[in-house]
Each structure stands twice: as structure tokens, then as C-alpha cells.
Amino acid sequence: MMEPIIEIQQLVKMYKLYDKPADRLKEALSITKKKYHHDFSALNGVTFSVEKGDALGILGKNGSGKSTLLKMITGVLSPTSGNIQVNGKIAAILELGAGFNPEYTGRENIYLNGLMMGYSRGEMEPRIAAIIEFADIGTFIDQPVKVYSSGMFARLAFAVSINVDPDILIVDEALAVGDIRFQTKCIDKMKELKSKGTTILFVSHAVEQVKRFCNKAVWIKDGVVEAIGDASEVVDHYEDFMKNYTEDHVEKRNVTLDIQENQSIEELVLPENPDILAYITEAHINKENFRTHERLEVEIDYDVYEPEIPDLLLGVAIYTPNRDYIFGPNTFLEKVSIPTKRGKHRVKYVIPKLPLLGGAYSIDVGIFNNEGIVCLNYRENILSFKIANKYFSEGLVYINHEWDVVK
Question: I need a labelling partner for 208 at 20 to 30 A (CA). Which of 89, 174, 266, 374 fits?
Fold first, then answer.
């Protein structure tokens, strides 16, 4: 059996927390060794292993211990107890600006980061052109990084990390600050590295990215491993938990764009914002009041502003008024080809026999690329409909069934 590239055993990280700064000094000077702190366990007995070539998603709400775990894997933090065995060279994007000297230019920081990863200046020279091209920050590459925006930091950090041939790439929410083009570029490169056998640890609050990009996932809850295994299954468990989580930190994905009314299907007006690659302009439903088993038809109009988005996909999701997710297929999973070239397009989504029972429902529509990892435009509650029947069954969905009297 192949030796794991990362092996973690009974990892514990404790912090001393003080109510006020002066308590730290009081405790240090106390003759009686009086404690002024209380212990906080960021990680408590975490154990798991990662195989070479795995893409491991790491899930957990803020404060669950994800970043602490990654910092210990990279050696930035030391564990209170437990063991970490890493068999390979790590490139990590943990915090924007980490490892950057703010007074150095972007170009100088490339060499600095390479040095910290064990590469000499001569070894970095052949990589410089590819790093600068990927970062795509123009003349800012020769400006001090203290004048960089968070997006520029992310671009440069990612460009360095993926061009030093790492055995392990760690990405902690770095894609969250980038625009759609940057996210697409990064995901493409991560997929390329994954195909070459690079092990990837990927932290994202966008759980659909984890489900679609990673083959495995681990859920860290309050410093312990709550679940580990197939990415899709772990994400489902995590989402079930988050539905009942009350803190208000829901990410809004709607994009506002002024679309001309009554625009013909042939006309296309390019948006002023170059980061908008595609947009859902309209959606129509064949009617608003249904009976169970009737035919539902949804027509979706969307614009593509790029010459082509070859991996474009369209998804439709049905929800209850409480936002319980009922069903959400997409064209990628069902191997349906849709128009991907610049222009105005229309796709019809049909459920021949609607199996839902009585109630009110809403429809979301989204367009994505990279197998659904990057959201280009998402329209929540774009349509709604109702179902009413004479009484013939109870529940949410009508399931074909049989009765058989056996006695």
C-alpha cells in the first residue's frame, strides 16, 4: 500500500485566552503561579490521511479550526500534541500577503517566495515569465506590493504557488477575492495540476466547488473531524447541518445588469463590465398553476459575451418557500450540449410529468463553467408556480408505487 502523502494523528492545538492584555503579564509574574487564562482548543484529536493525487476539500464554519489545521500542515504553527507527517514539497496560499515583503516589488517577491520554498534565484529564473503572465497585473509587477489590492495579492500568490511544481498545493479561500475570469483561470490550472498527480487541499465556503472539484472531503466541526469520505456525501451532511445553523453569513450570488427591454433574440449588447462573461436575461414558464403530473416547461434566455465559453453549463433548481432544495439537474451532469458561443440563446427545460403534490414552489436558474465550479450568473426565485389537486395523496412528491395484499 502506498504511503500517504500527508498523515495526521491525534492533532491537538491549544491556545491561552486572556480577558485583558494585562492578565498575560500578571500570569507571567505571578509567584503563586495563578492562572489568568482559560484554554481554548482549536483542534482536538484530529486524525486523517491524504493519498497522493487526492483533491481534498476541507469544510467547516468560521472558527472550526480549518485555517489552524492548514497552518500546522505547512509548518507555520506547531501542534500542542500529536503528529503530522508530510512527504512532499508544499505550496500554500493561506492568507493574502503572507510571505510578501510589502516594500519589495511583485517581481522581487517572486524570488523571495521561491527562496522560502527552497529554490535558488537561478532556479526561479525559468519560471518568472510564466508567473508574471499568469498573475496578469501589468506594470504593477514592478511596483511595491504595499500598493496592491487584495485581488492583485491573490493573483500573484496563486501564480507563484502553481508554478513551482509543488507535490501539495494548499488553497485557503484565495479564490473568494478574485473576479470570474481569475477564478476560471485558477480552477483550470488546479485541474491541470490534479491531472498530473498533485495533491490539493482546498478550503472554500462555496460547497458546490468542493463537491465538483474534490474527490474527498473532511468536515471539521468545533476542532474535531465530524465526517470524512467521498466529497459529495460529506458536503451533503455539512449542508444539512448548515441549514439549521443560525448565524447570518449567507453569501449573495446575484449580479445586477441593465438589460434592454424587448431586445430581439438576435441582438446582443456587450456589458461595460468585462468580468460579466454570461448572463441570464429572462425565464418563462408555461403556466403558473398546475396539477400533479402535468407538463412543466421553462424557457431560459441567456447571453454569452465571450467569443466562446466551451465548458458552459446551465442548471435549474426547484425549491419550496422555505428554500428546501427539491431537485436541481444541470446540463453538464446530464451530458446535454447547449450553445456556448457569443450571442443570445434560448434553452427549454421540461418535466413531462411533474411529480410534486400541492403547494407553492420557486425556480432558480444559474449558468456556470468548469463543471459547475465557477458561477457566472445566478438568478434566485426567477419564477414561481403553484400546484393544487383534488385530494388523492399526501406529502411533497408523488412516487409511483404498488399495493399488494399478502394475507
Answer: 89
